Amino acid sequence: MSDKLHTLTASLQDGMHPASLWKALPNGRVECHLSPRKCRIPEGGLGFCGVRYNRNGELLTLNYGKSVPMTEERIESEAVYHYAPGAPILSLGNIGCMLKCDFCQNWQTSQARLVREQDIARYTPEQVVDYAVRHGIGILSWTYNDPVVWQEFVMDTARLARQAGLRNLYKSAFSIGPEAIDELLEVMDIFSISLKSLDADFYRKFTRSELQPVLEGIKQVYRARQGGRGPHLEVSNLCITGRNDNLEQARRVCDWMLDNLDDEIPLHYVRFHPDYLYTQVARTDVNFLEQARRQALDAGVKFVYLGNTANTVSVDTCCPQCREVVIRRSGEGIALHLDGNRCGHCGHVLPIVNLPQTSKPVAFAGKPGRSLTHVFRGAIGAAHIEQATENPIRYVFLDADGKEIMGGQSSCLRFLVSKPSARVVAMRIDLDADKDVRVLEVFDRAHFPTVLTEQSQSGSCDVPPAPLQPR
Ligand code: SF4
């Protein structure tokens, strides 16, 4: 066993799985071509991602079936606004990454050597599919750190999911090789791709990867759509304070989309929060994001949204013909004014896949016997609720006077909730008397939390912790 392997936590060293997409080289070396990095790995060595290992001239993957806990979220969390609005998704994130961004918002899992044992859960493809079906969740989302370095588990599970009537969503920075994309195109229904910049130097300097393969990858997915039968595609651009939060960079992204895709592919300008090694700056200025959105609309992109930004109409979808709102979004809540994929006001056909909701209603066996109150701190407007067994949980949002605003329910082991409006200050969680939950704060909706509310030092949040309080 090599010294390299010993740099990783025990779960990663245990239970290796044959890797795909590699070739043998002389002297026991292997070349991995899952991502464009094409690592040449000596015996006993690890790839750049930290989760592909050369054992005696064979490439093995260390993260097969090893994941952060599966989480029920809404499809909007993944910067997907034009496919099954409001649909529940089952989000799965793994360990490792083919990039090394100093601003990473998922660094606790993307950096394999930093992963903690307690954040690793193990699943089989069958368990994932069975869980989604049992909870009435129709879409698996391959997300968080980056699904590229999980190709073998993604493919095995996504194929099984398709057989069970589920759909698959791929949320990625998409630094991935063409053969791997061809495999994904067999099973993915939705791609949400994070294009970080149109500046090759930005990619080299801040992500330690190359821009061009990402652009080629997006075009490969787009080509597969031709004829109208391919996967759904949306593009997001994380606007990072002091790095690419200027109108010239934002303009290059929308111009590239207009030149290489079409004007109906949704574009999301996403707000950054300071994280990992890039913490000495503020969050992205919302005024800049609004200007970038206006610029892209003026340039001709029909659907431009802001991400990780609350209290703005720039998250709503308007009909390009009559300009009326057809999807209003607040937190996880949506209000649809659609008739199938037609505008509910003027009948204009919209490029939106509108599916019926599939979540199963959750029933309490008796009356919930216990309530806890979670206070939303400062700018932190979302949380994961986690429980040990699949019990019904109801949550209700409260304003400053304690008035109930709206709420929801779930019996998943872990699920995301987010504030539906600025009036909400707290959330009441109702559960059976003998049960308990943990609440983990989420600074932005797509950010995977790994610490309890009481321990959170999240981003630029500057308010004191507020642990769960008995009501
Ligand atoms: S997935 Fe990419 S980073 Fe990881 S070993 Fe393969 S080529 Fe290297």
Task: Describe the overall structure.
The chain has 471 residues and is an alpha+beta fold. The protein folds into three domains: 5-61, no CATH class; 66-343, Aldolase class I (TIM Barrel); 370-470, Hypothetical Protein Tm1070, Chain: A (Sandwich). It has nine helices and 29 strands. The strands form eight sheets. It has an eight-stranded mixed sheet. Strand 3 (30-32) and strand 4 form a beta hairpin. Helix 4 packs parallel to helix 5 (178-187). The N and C termini lie far apart (53 Å). The model is unreliable at 456-471 (pLDDT under 50). The structure holds iron/sulfur cluster.
Descriptive terms for the model:
471 residues, alpha+beta, TIM Barrel, Hypothetical Protein Tm1070, Chain: A, 3 domains, 8-stranded mixed sheet, 5-stranded antiparallel sheet, 29 strands, 19% helix, globular, disordered C terminus, binds iron/sulfur cluster
Task: Describe how the helices and strands are arranged.
Layout: H1 10-13, E1 17-18, E2 22-24, E3 30-32, E4 40-41, E5 52-55, E6 58-61, E7 66-67, E8 71-74, E9 88-93, H2 107-110, E10 121-122, H3 125-134, E11 139-143, H4 151-163, E12 167-172, H5 178-187, E13 190-194, H6 200-207, H7 212-224, E14 232-239, H8 247-260, E15 267-271, H9 286-299, E16 304-307, E17 317-318, E18 325-330, E19 333-336, E20 338-339, E21 342-343, E22 370-375, E23 382-386, E24 393-398, E25 404-410, E26 414-418, E27 426-431, E28 438-442, E29 469-470
Parallel strand pairs: 9-11, 11-12, 12-13, 13-14, 14-15, 15-16
Antiparallel strand pairs: 1-6, 2-3, 3-4, 5-6, 7-10, 8-9, 17-18, 18-19, 20-21, 22-27, 22-29, 23-26, 23-28, 24-25, 24-27
Helix pairs in contact: 3-4, 4-5, 8-9
Bound molecules: iron/sulfur cluster.
Iron/sulfur cluster (SF4) is lined by residues 32, 34-35, 37-39, 47-49, 52, 98, 149.
